[in-house]
Design a protein that fits this description.
alpha/beta, TIM Barrel, 8-stranded parallel β-barrel, two-stranded antiparallel ribbon, 14 helices, 11 strands, 13% strand, disordered C terminus
């Protein structure tokens, strides 16, 4: 069984990848998509969206990170994939699932599911351009506005050289509306000879169990469910091994929030930092009343210094730091809300 953290543009950046993979249970993660259009991108674009490339393409927890590309030009995607490999990308992932209107209007993401032949050309071109030892993988939905070509798309990806296929079990038109049609994952796995991952609507252990039963696959990609419940992957691993693992408490989440905020403060201008924290708190509020209460408290607060104080964070020489006493051995003690 492999558990992956989904690439979610505008949500799961390098900071949240770092925090979530340190909770545990995730086997690999993927960058937000890197948009490829008409040219070879400069190195700094890759390093901005995938700073983990500077440390062996792994998060701080040691979780491997894949670089995801999005576009429709096979030759241009191939050139950029080759460059990403020289920068240290261990796997190249191709996005054929993004439902965003702006992306689809510029021939990227899920709109390409209307053209299985193009999917094949893209994967084949990228596969030919990158070293043989570096896998090429792909993520797809069930189709654009219907499932008529789902099998054609999956076979095109596999025949083009995709080593794995993640299936978000909804069409583009479905968006993120439940349900996810996990039965289609089983059908797609039956028609290709490469591993298939199920993705969509896995918010809890019960969802995971039902997804496995319906899809027939062990490999899972977790997205919004993991953002809302950071220990979901760890819970799944324990359940798979027959162990009972108590869920994280608010006291367990508090130092994660502190660390997340410290990293956001170090990376983003003060005008944008509060929005990132509020975004995550909204997702955490699905399960944590304390997260909802904290969000309500800072909903209209844009002064980073006020949020620093609420979270017990100080700015030392321009660098965020936790306001937690250090123990006698020099390690940081755990701060609790």
């Amino acid at each position: 069984m492999q558990l992956a953290l989904a690439p979610m543009e505008g949500l799961v950046d390098d900071i949240l990848r770092d925090v979530l993979t340190r909770v545990g249970g995730i086997d690999w993660c993927v960058t937000e998509f890197i948009r490829v259009s008409e040219r070879l991108l400069p190195e700094h674009v890759f390093l901005k969206l995938a700073p983990e490339l500077r440390r062996g393409a792994r998060t701080r927890a040691g979780t491997p990170m894949r670089v995801q590309l999005l576009g429709s030009d096979p030759a241009c995607l191939a050139d950029n994939a080759a460059l990403a490999c020289t920068l240290g990308a261990p796997v190249i992932d191709l996005n054929f699932g993004c439902p965003a209107k702006t992306v689809n209007k510029s021939r990227g993401g899920a709109v390409l599911l209307k053209e299985p032949e193009l999917l094949h050309r893209i994967v084949a071109a990228v596969r030919a351009a990158v070293p043989a030892e570096i896998p090429v993988t792909a993520k797809m939905r069930l189709g654009f506005d219907n499932t008529d070509r789902a099998f054609d798309c999956a076979q095109a990806l596999a025949d083009g050289g995709a080593a794995q296929i993640v299936v978000h079990a909804r069409t583009k038109v479905d968006g993120y509306r439940p349900p996810a049609h996990w039965e289609w994952v089983a059908r797609i796995q039956d028609c290709v000879r490469v591993p298939v991952y199920a993705n969509g609507e896995i918010w809890s252990l019960d969802d995971w169990r039902r997804c496995r039963a319906v899809s027939g696959v062990d490999n899972i990609m977790l997205g919004r469910g993991l953002v809302a419940r950071p220990d979901l992957a760890r819970q799944i691993v324990a359940a798979r091994e027959g162990r009972l693992l108590l869920p994280m408490t608010w006291a367990d989440l508090w130092p994660l929030l502190q660390d997340f905020w410290c990293q956001v403060r170090a990376k983003l201008p003060p005008a944008f930092a509060p929005g990132r924290l509020k975004q995550w708190l909204i997702w955490l509020s699905r399960h944590e009343p304390q997260a909802a209460a904290l969000f309500a408290r800072i909903r209209r607060e844009n002064d980073c210094a006020v949020i620093d104080a609420l979270l017990g964070v100080s700015i030392v020489a321009g660098v965020p730091d936790l306001l937690a006493e250090r123990s006698g051995d020099g390690t940081r003690s755990r701060a609790v809300a």
